[in-house]
Amino acid sequence: MLIAGLVKEHLMDRNTLAYYLEDLWSKGFKLSDEDVQFIYFGKNSTNATEWKTIIALRMTLKIQKSFDPSFFISVLEYVSSPHIKQKRQAYEAIESRLSIAETTNH
After folding, report:
1. 29 HSE (CA, 13 A, CB side)
2. Inter-residue contact 31 to 24 (CB < 8 Å)
3. C-alpha span between 19 and 31 (Å, rounded)
């Protein structure tokens, strides 16, 4: 009973990946089971924190308008760098990298 309560409490924490995925679902953005498995695979393989994984997923969905696994893993690998310690740093690093990519593609 105690374990079930702890799991439920963990799922209700707004900073968890599980909560973020549930929130996306409730807003009508349905990821497939394979997408969710890939997201957790990416998180585990990069040893990324939950907040960095959420940022990578949020930016993937914002930029690509759908879940693109290769884009997601690229962003996640980039933000999982130990020198990124704050959310603002992560967003700035992603936006900086994207603007560099845009200028080199033109």
Report:
1. 15
2. yes
3. 14
Rounded to an integer, what distance in angstroms lies between the CA atom of residue 67 and that of residue 43? 15
Look-up of token digits 């998180």: 43
The pLDDT confidence band at residue 2, using thresholds 50, 70 and 90, is: very low
Q: What is the pTM of this model?
A: 0.80
Q: Let me know if 40 is exposed, middle or buried by CB neighbors in 10 A (0-12, 13-18, 19+).
A: middle
Per residue in 57-71, pLDDT (tens digit) is 999 999 999 999 999
Predicted confidence (pLDDT) per residue in 34-46, tens digit:
999 999 999 999 9
